[in-house]
Structures are given as C-alpha cells and as structure tokens.
Amino acid sequence: MLLPYLYNKYVKNNAILIDDVHHNFAVRSQRNNFTVKKKFFHLLIYYPEFAFVFFWRIKSRSFIWKILFLKNYSCKIFSSSVIQGGLVAYHPYASVINARKIGKNFIFRNSLTIGNKNNDNRLLPVIGDNVEVGANVVIIGAIEIGDNVIIGAGSVVVKSIPSDSVVAGNPAKIIKRL
To answer: Do 122 and 148 fall into the same domain?
Structure first.
C-alpha cells in the first residue's frame, strides 16, 4: 500500500522524478520492459541510494516510513541546488552538494564535495548534462563543467571544464576529448 501511495502522490505526474527513475533503472538493470511504476517500486525496494535521491526530491523531513527504505547516509544536498532529472547516487556517503545548477543525468559516487569558494555562496559551480563523477572528487568555485564530462576519482576541479572531456588529477586536467 505504501509504494503505490508514494508513486501516485509524488512520481506519476512529476517529469523530474520520472527522469530519475528511468536513468537510475537504465544504469542499474538489464530489464527494459518494466513500466515506470514497476521500475520505481524496484528501485525503492532494492536501492537505498535511489531512496535517498527520491526522499530528497520530495523534500521529506518527517516521513516516518522513509526509514524502511533508507540507509544512514552522511550526505547533504543543499536545498538551493537545482538538479535536473536523472540524478544517480552510488554510495552517497560523506558527500556534500552545493551547486548553482546541475544538469540532466548527473551520476556521482561517495565522498564528493561540490561547493563554494571562500565561503561565498555566489561562487558556486554550474554543472552540465551527462556528467559522471568518480569517488573522492572536489569541485569548488564559480566554474562551469560542460556537458558529457567524466571526472576521474580523486580529482580536484577548480577551473572550468569544456564539454566532451575526461579529466583527472589534482588539479584536474583534460586527459581525453570525447
């Protein structure tokens, strides 16, 4: 009863959540013939990382039943961060996301820090569509990450990155053009 309620109330008519469901399911499963509703049920039951994203999207703070789906992730996504649909979190432990805007199909892993520079929230990153970020990455300052970018694990990104790039290192440098 709870899953249909959550689907009907929050997902059914929400394009961003539907994008989250489709993208999470696409990167986690080989099954393609599920309906959005069935994909949502599957993700919420078997992937606590998806549950984390879902409950952040619906801005739940006091829903007692969310403990049925979540693990205790030490992850904070600032409510001022605008994140388009298709958000995928793999093991979102020790992550902080404070960005001006993040585009569609953003994938991140544990220990990610996205934030301002010099404690000034006017100096926040803007991240494009189809960006994938490895573990232990730092992205800070008023920089722009283009579309279709892969950021390698352990990278420190303090300068803008053009679209269609693979970057890695400290400081991050382009190692390949896509």
So the answer is: yes
Predicted local confidence at residue 62, as pLDDT: 66
Per residue in 23-40, pLDDT (tens digit) is 999 998 767 789 999 999
**Residue reference for tokens 């489709």:** 22
Bond from prior residue into 92 cis (ω within 30 degrees of 0) = no
Q: Band the pLDDT of 169: cuts 50, 70, 90.
A: very high
Q: Is the pLDDT of residue 112 over 70?
A: yes
The HSE-up count of residue 12 (CA atoms within 13 Å, CB side) is 7
Q: For 62-106, what is each residue's pLDDT tens digit? A: 667 777 787 777 789 999 999 999 999 998 889 999 999 999 999
Judgement on whether residues 93 and 172 belong to the same structural domain of the protein = yes
Q: Are residues 54 and 85 in the same domain?
A: no
Same domain, 136 and 108: yes
**Helices 36-46, 15-28: inter-axial angle, 10-degree rounding:** 70
